[in-house]
Amino acid sequence: MEEILEFDAARQAEMISAGEVSAEEIMSATLDRIDRVNGPLNAIVSIRDHGLLLEEARNRDNVKSDGPLHGLPIAIKDLANAKGFPTSMGSTLFKDFAAQDDSVHVARLKAAGAIVIGKTNTPEFGLGSHTFNSVHGSTCNPYCNKVSCGGSSGGAAVALAARMVSIADGSDMMGSLRNPAGWNNVYGMRPSWGLVPSDPEGDTFLHQLATNGPMARSPGDLGLLLRVMSGPDSRQPHGRAFEPVKKTENFIKGRRIGWLADWGGAHAYEDGIMQVGESAMGVFESLGAAVEALQPPFGSEELWNSWTTLRSWQIASRLAVLLDDPEKRNHLKRDAIWEIERGIGFTAMDVHSASVIRSSWFRSASLVFDVYDALVLPSAQVWPFPIESISPETIGDKAMDTYHRWMEVTIPASLIGLPVVAIPAGFGDNGLPAGIQLIGRRGSDAALLEMAKAYHVATQWPEKRPPGLQS
Questions:
Q1: Which residues, 6+ apart, have CB-to-CB distance to 219 below 8 Å?
Q2: Reported pTM
């Protein structure tokens, strides 16, 4: 029955609705697959009792469909709350915390019929694009268990690639839905900021860098999940609704795509990364898009300085209380301490100046999108690195001056809340997968998904399964 797990989520939901397969059968196959492959990968953690999950699935079979995800298993990223499950956030400080309520987007997933089976692994507090922590350990890349799966939505991406689930949620501040998608040969989407609401707690006005979003093995499933997760929350400002587009037979034909390559030499890449991206650009050209090399539309160091200021300020606003307690401070990893100490050291005018740069970049980007339908960059600057490493210290002969500089390629979109579909772009000579970012104007989420669908039909990259799952 495990062959049912090869289908995408939309097809599985259709089969349940038509009575071709039961939710219990899909749950049974899912749990069998998890038992068989999750051990060495360590993607799904805090798994609920199998008997209770099968019982819940049987109950779904006995009631009318309650939404587009009726009966589909899903595991929630361990930064979000799913009632009754631990929310460790990868920190020993919270390893025994059990969520009393669902996060906003989790409640929406459940209301659409999804069954939460467990959590997916993440770095401590989601910091760093490498999934390891002191609570659950490291998550391996399914294409080579000796290298990183990326992060921070690493567990989600691995669970998808290994066919343990057909859909997954994730979150993204600095590429956390994009880097693991590329490194695991699946799709991830950072929506326009405000499209998927966060939880209505603390400040809901100032911090606009991070967002929740969907992951899947096809753009169609990204759209399915995004429609469920999206929409304003009356308790929060800045919400927006998903805006569909009129579909055409060849949606991508005539679209103009700007290839930003290495941002005029500012971004260092490992050998082969640029070539994989250029090959993907060739696919878009073959589909009728006009691909043009684009000069950097804004200064890279200005973007970096604005980003690192606003990011550290946001992280400190959330975690500084942990630094104030000496006992709790001892539980924090080095990178979290560095971010918090930077963030609390900024003045109000430092933050204002960073936001002025952000505003200037938004204006510049709007002019670019008057000409181009999408911009493209690689989704990471390096290949998956050894799992025992913390982060790359160099790219070629260029030293990385922070733990996240090798993900600098993700900040142009993150800084101003642009939608991005992370797309598989193929494999390097090392046999490892890589990806690209398809970036659009705010609100162009549906159009990006339609472009990604055309690319997916032409490439079918996720069909190249991890070695242990080859058919």
A1: 187, 421, 449, 452, 453, 455, 456
A2: 0.98
